[in-house]
Task: inverse folding
């Protein structure tokens, strides 16, 4: 099956060997997205809500670059470093998914940079190109 790599304009070079997104057979797979700026530094240190918003905006950009929208999201994989941030994350998350909610899971783990409080990977079904 043919696939295409999705790299929004202005995307910085990833810190590991991956692409921001991959489109295959009408499905966009968005890599684990951390609250990084263009230099791969963590933004909004200590603020889980602001980091969540930054991550979801980045994901939105990948999906829109592939031709979809946040309404096309069918699954989110959420990684948190502290359950104390769960309510703040959910508050921002609900803004991005106001209607029917995509499936998701949320786990507690360590992330690649200690200042990062959240990472989200996403799947969106945008239809066939």
Result:
């Amino acid at each position: 099956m043919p696939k295409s790599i999705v790299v929004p304009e202005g995307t910085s070079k990833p810190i590991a060997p991956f692409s921001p997104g991959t489109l295959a057979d009408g499905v966009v797979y968005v890599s684990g997205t951390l609250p990084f700026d263009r230099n791969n530094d963590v933004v909004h240190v200590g603020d889980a809500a602001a980091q969540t918003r930054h991550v979801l905006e980045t994901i939105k950009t990948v999906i829109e670059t592939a031709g979809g929208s946040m309404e096309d999201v069918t699954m989110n994989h959420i990684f948190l470093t502290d359950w104390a941030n769960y309510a703040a994350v959910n508050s921002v998350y609900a803004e991005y998914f106001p209607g029917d909610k995509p499936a998701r899971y949320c786990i507690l783990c360590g992330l690649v940079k200690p200042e990062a409080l959240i990472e989200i990977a996403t799947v969106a079904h945008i239809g066939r190109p």
In short: Residues 48-65 form the longest helix (18 residues).
